[in-house]
């Protein structure tokens, strides 16, 4: 394979990966332009209430790592602003957390006083599939024996393939880059 053709190959793969990455989930920056802060009394409850979070969405916490952090906690500790039992702690100041399951995800700032001042957010990820009516088989046509493709199975396979691919994007890209 010539160098130019290899470059084109890499370009195409990067383009495809880029498109899939965009399609895999929405990035939500907590607090929007204000970010993750105690300044300005951002109402994170209100911020979250205006969003519809889905699995694969990315929750982005942007803040000064000198002054804040991000701790994922249990509901009881979220309510009481107890930062002693974090499920996960993030301290980079630019933390992207990908939602992998539905339900509530509770975050607070572990710096003393900040959670009490309102620096806490509940990301509630709805189980969208359950809100849809259960898929029923298409009504059988009494006389016609025409081939009717099964809609559910034919749709599911590519979706899972796509989902897997986008989740393993960086591995795929690393392999591609290594090969070329
Ligand atoms: Cu803080």
Automatic annotation (TrEMBL):
Ranges that cross the membrane: 6-28, 159-179
MF terms (GO), sorted A to Z: electron transfer activity; metal ion binding
Pfam family, one: Cu_bind_like
PROSITE patterns on file: PHYTOCYANIN, PROKAR_LIPOPROTEIN
GO cellular component, one term: plasma membrane
Lineage: superkingdom: Eukaryota
Record-linked Gene3D superfamilies: Cupredoxins - blue copper proteins (2.60.40.420)
UniProt key word Metal-binding: yes
Record keywords, A-Z: Glycoprotein, Membrane, Metal-binding, Transmembrane, Transmembrane helix
SUPFAM superfamilies membership: Cupredoxins
Domain Phytocyanin: 26-127
Span of the signal peptide: none
Xref: PANTHER family: BLUE COPPER PROTEIN, OS07G0570600 PROTEIN
The protein's name in its UniProt record: Mavicyanin
Biological source species: Heracleum sosnowskyi
